[in-house]
Amino acid sequence: MTEQEILARIDHTLLKATASWEDITTLCDEAVRHKTASVCIPPAYVKPVFESFGECPIICTVIGFPLGYTYTSVKALETSRALDDGASEIDMVINISDVKSGHFDRVLEEIQTLKKICGEKILKVIIETCYLGEDEKITLCGIVSEAGADYIKTSTGFGTAGATLADIALFKRHIRPGLKIKAAGGIKTRENLSAFIAAGADRIGTSSAIKLLAGESAGGY
To answer: Which of 40, 70, 72, 92 has its CA 20 to 30 A from that of 32?
Structure first.
């Protein structure tokens, strides 16, 4: 793949708690210059970024991040506010506690609630694969498919491990046609970028892609 084909699949990401406004504007400038798919930024920065940059770059933000176990009503409020502030894409974290308790009906209902709020805007569902067994991953592939989300996403990048090629392959076998895949967490070489895309990842969340494609060493998300 060409560099631009790779960059067009990148959610250029900065989600560190210490991210400053200068850091965020640098991220956005890079995204515009290199034509990445979006920038993925903390919710508190959505409105000022939209006011400063408009609709380019596309703004993605995170909901219930990174642990996912807050109230659905809070996630719904976060989502509505983020969209009102200028976000076009939402990356939500499922309630993994519900998964571990076998309350898959609640997980389905929550995703459906947020997708209804998103409407035509993109909803990506983070299932945090590092905390799941294979059967749980397969069940969640079905739930995310049924809920009508736009993407299933591997990881927050803040768990005990990130994306794996094995999980991308598992997703491909068990998601409905049309549901896309986002890989995130620990993708820090150019070879990784190409491998995840070849395996079926439609998007990659990383802070490293631009540096990697320029031949620099990676760090962070």
So the answer is: 92
Q: What is the pLDDT of residues 192-202, one digit of tens each?
A: 999 999 999 99
CA neighbor of 114 nearest in space, from 97, 92, 81: 92
Best CA proximity match to 50, nearest among 87, 91, 10:
87
pTM of this structure:
0.96
- d(CA 145, CA 108) in angstroms, rounded, equals 10
Class for domain 3-213, per CATH? alpha beta
**pLDDT tens-digit map of 51-61:** 999 999 999 99
The full set of domain ranges for the chain reads 3-213
Integer-rounded Cα Rg, in Å, for the chain is: 16
